[in-house]
Amino acid sequence: MSAPSPQRDLRNRPLASLPDADFELLRPRLRLVTMEKGDMLRWQEGPVPSVCFPLSGTISTIVNLSDGRSVEAGMTGFDGMIDLCALGSGVAFGDHIVQGSGEAYMVDASFLFHAAQSRPAILKMIFLAAEASAAYCHQSLACRTFHQLEARFCRWLLMARYHLKSDSLSLTHEFLATMLGAQRSTVTGMAYKLQVDGLISYHRGSIVLADISRLKARSCECYQRVVDRSELAFPSAPSEHTQEPTAP
């Protein structure tokens, strides 16, 4: 469902970084949409006619292999935009699936492309978003290659918390297995271990992060590196520094 965008919404950091005049150029072409968990926004190798700026919720980019296996290659929320392929080949490299419900602005890729050619601030916003997205992919590759599953599991939970701004996550073990590129039984065992240790609690598709400081200690360096890179590209507003995610 979409609706016109009547006023400026600062929840998406790339859009919030734009000077007023540049945002006003985009504003009439922004469409406010509601994203529901499980929505497939793009299909791998499918056309990408528009660019999405999440205001809330989060979107996973899933790469599918020919043997049927899948793994998450990216996670985009309020601190980014998706899919930059729209401004290049126009063909999605992976599936884009909503993993956390929320809202987003959509804008036609062709309009954004032409706007960037005459507005340096818009072009810089796109470059910074591309840099942050690449940093996530690069760090994820290093993480999957060198770090143990428990550390990766904790990192993923913390990244989801960061984007959803909530300690309560609606997730199944099957979904987590796809995100981590692991067997479902392995993820179930890992979740049980973390629950016994008091770091999380889970029940019927819901995981509550119970001890954030210990989760960070059990996570690898990759969580903080990705967050720091996002902050470098699009610094948070002062008011955001005092807001910690909470369970609903």
Task: Describe this structure as you would to a colleague.
The chain is α+β, with helices and mostly antiparallel strands and 248 residues long. It has two domains: 2-118, Jelly Rolls (Sandwich); 146-242, Winged helix-like DNA-binding domain superfamily/Winged helix DNA-binding domain (Arc Repressor Mutant, subunit A, Orthogonal Bundle), CATH 1.10.10.10. Helices cover 42% and strands 22% of the residues. The chain contains nine helices and eleven strands. The chain has helices at 13-16, 20-26, 109-118, 120-146, 149-164, 173-180, 184-196, 212-218, 222-233, and strands spanning 2-4, 31-35, 40-42, 50-54, 58-64, 70-76, 95-100, 102-108, 168-170, 200-203, 206-209. The chain has a four-stranded antiparallel beta sheet. A four-stranded antiparallel beta sheet has the order 3-7-5-6. Helix 3 crosses helix 4 (120-146), helix 5 (149-164) packs across helix 8 and helix 6 packs across helix 7. The radius of gyration is 18 Å and the shape is globular. The mean pLDDT is 90.
Strand content: 15-25%
**Overall SS class:** alpha+beta
**What is the makeup of the main sheet?**
4 strands, antiparallel
* Structural shape: globular
Output the keywords.
Arc Repressor Mutant, subunit A, alpha+beta, four-stranded antiparallel sheet, 22% strand, Jelly Rolls, globular, 248 residues, 2 domains
